Amino acid sequence: xxxxxxxxxxxxxxxxxxxxxxxxxxxxxxxxxxxxxxxxxxxxxxxxxxxxxxxxxxxxxxxxxxxxxxxxxxxxxxxxxxxxxxxxxxxxxxxxxxxxxxxxxxxxxxxxxxxxxxxxxxxxxxxxxxxxxxxxxxxxxxxxxxxxxxxxxxxxxxxxxxxxxxxxxxxxxxxxxxxxxxxxxxxxxxxxxxxxxxxxxxxxxxxxxxxxxxxxxxxxxxxxxxxxxxxxxxxxxxxxxxxxxxxxxxxxxxxxxxxxxxxxxxxxxx
Length: 270
Ligand code: NDP
Fold this sequence. Notes:
- The protein is 39% helix and 22% strand.
- It is of the alpha/beta class.
- It has 2 domains: 3-100 and 239-269, Rossmann fold (3-Layer(aba) Sandwich); 103-236, Rossmann fold (3-Layer(aba) Sandwich).
- α1 packs across α9 (238-253), α5 (102-113) crosses α9 (238-253) and α9 crosses α10.
- It is globular, with a radius of gyration of 18 Å.
- The model has no long low-confidence stretch (mean pLDDT 97).
- NADPH dihydro-nicotinamide-adenine-dinucleotide phosphate binds at residues 63-64, 66, 102, 105, 127-132, 150-152, 155, 188-193, 196, 198, 214-216, 237, 240-241, 244.
């Protein structure tokens, strides 16, 4: 039987992860299956336990379970420990290994696929959930300073406090952003899932700025706003999805797929 993997989330029907891992497996000759599993809000741990019992080798974790996944792990990679959120589980014989591949996925997409420089850039990171936790350290490591804005201000303040020693970071309310400009504005909220636009003031994009939405599969209200506001480059999160998936694939299989080919094919066909 093929080695089994899955992605667990809620909602999950929109996920392109099964297609991406199928493409990786075909490209690299790996014998595996990968499916999307919807877990009820209080059913994440039970779903993981079931997969382990059934002999799955690992899984990805998406909205809203990344913090719960972190707490389930017996062992963590350095980047998962830093993020305190986990998007990749590997079921080892003795324990669960947790990793977080979101940050490397985002930075690789911005720098290598989109050709934008993070070094010396000032970034507005919207959201303070699992995805924001996963990427913030990597933005610092790439040389960017970060302002965090979140609907629930306390969570933005908490995230900024957690990472205060790692780089230049502050937390601000959306209202306090009026009159300020950024080299890149990254939407790490799940607002796009319900067609919601974070309450951004106009004039937020510096000339040449990048507007990046981690959502993928459609033009989100944030991407539309960025177009209307004249952002120089606008991207959805499909490239990040492919790059973070490739890191998870490497953790599980020890093989690196050619992400550029997969991303090109996805952009052509979906
Ligand atoms: P979480 O549920 O952990 O966090 C959601 C965040 O979005 C919170 O900060 C929440 O604010 C904010 N939010 C939710 N609804 C709204 C709204 N209507 N207006 C403003 N803010 C809102 O989710 P994740 O962090 O795990 O994921 C966030 C998004 O990023 C998802 O859409 C996910 O699909 C995407 N993602 C994409 C990846 C990719 O590879 N392309 C990888 C990882 C994530 P509050 O604290 O106030 O509740």
